[in-house]
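Form P-L/3: holo structure prediction, ligand coenzyme A.
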Amino acid sequence: MTVVIEPMRVDDIAAVHDIERASFSAPWPTYAFRQELESNRLARYLVARDGGRIVGYAGLWLMVDEAHITTFAVAPESRRQGIGERMLLELLQVSESVGAAVATLEVRVSNMPARRLYEKYGFRPVGVRPRYYTDNNEDALIMTTGELTSKEMRGRLARLSAELLGREPGRRESATANGRSGAADGGEVAG
Ligand SMILES: CC(C)(COP(=O)(O)OP(=O)(O)OC[C@H]1O[C@@H](n2cnc3c(N)ncnc32)[C@H](O)[C@@H]1OP(=O)(O)O)[C@@H](O)C(=O)NCCC(=O)NCCS
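OUTPUT (holo model):
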């Protein structure tokens, strides 16, 4: 597997939407992705591509000094291979490079795989939005990183990046994401 992380393009939306529908109980419609890519100047969206096949996607909104992760998913058959980590690292690096102080997101309280991933990358619970997800009235956990420029966050990201490189020799290719936003878990704003 040679996975590259690249900006999402309009041509990618159909494949992205297949993953969206497989991943979330309240998927975004395709036009939402198109709108984000074409009209939202605050948005950055990326895809993970494995030999031409899209295996994951993610996005964020860059709002003043905060990066808000809006959507994030890996194709079911491609999970547990570090693709989520690759995409999250890229989002956090993009966020820091444009001057965001912190990154934040909402995640379903029951979504332990995603919570574990975010915790690994320095996100911590800071609050709850009661009944945020209208499909089942589930609460959203709000998770936020420490200061992206802090020694702790920089050290964490450098260590995790090196570990990923070690797992996948010579394969840390990436490009700056483009795109748009929402809330990271298949919910009101995101999938
Ligand atoms: C959450 C998600 C994006 C993770 O993607 P992934 O590519 O499988 O994740 P990775 O292989 O990069 O895993 C990295 C870390 O995430 C955590 N993790 C991922 N899947 C996990 C699982 N099933 N159980 C527990 N921890 C898990 C672990 O901390 C893991 O690190 P480790 O390998 O050192 O244990 C994926 O499960 C997914 O698309 N889920 C459905 C959509 C979704 O919930 N998106 C998030 C919305 S907020």
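COMMENT: Residues 23, 72-74, 79-85, 107, 111-114, 116-117, 120, 184-185 surround coenzyme A (CB under 6 Å).
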